[in-house]
Automatic annotation (TrEMBL):
Coiled coil: none annotated. Residues 1-20 form the signal peptide. This is Toxin-antitoxin system YwqK family antitoxin. Pfam families: MORN_2.
Amino acid sequence: MRRTYYLILFVLSLALQTKAQSSSADLAPYKHHIANDDHQFSFYTLPSDKSVGTIKPNRSYYWWGGKQIQVTQGGYSGKLLDGIFTVYYLNKQLKQQGLFKKGLKYGEWKEWNEQGKLTLRTTYVEGIANGSFYKYNDLGQLQEQGTYKDGKLEGKLSKYVTADSVSVSKYKNGVLVPVQKDTDSKPWWKFWKKKETNVRK
């Protein structure tokens, strides 16, 4: 009984290993490594037999053509980027990493400086910034945080001037909302005015 159990486990593990190797082999023709003077890129392109779907005119598509990564709004003329996208500094530190689906940015994208400190986190949905974002200084300290909605600032934007000082502003559809003054509150000098008292004569 135990021998049969181990035999089944062995066959299953062998099948999984073969499938993993097959998947890697299937993706191999679509994986690219390129280098320029100060960065190295690693990315995948979409297989030609996969359906792209409807091209949206207000989206920026990333594609591979002419031995370069290209960006075009509302169209493309090469192989769309699809899968994990990674950029390295020459010292092998990560510079940028995120996910492409059919040429569009998806999920959380991150950026780092050459010392390996995280400098930016942004979330994308169908190629447009949507959700929370965080910016950090070169020491890795949070400098700014806010929210994007359809690529535009929405809600509170917090800027950390110092460790104890935060500047908060509000945005609506990408436009800064002016601070409203409270007209119902009394001027400061009225709080110091003495109350009149009735004196009997």
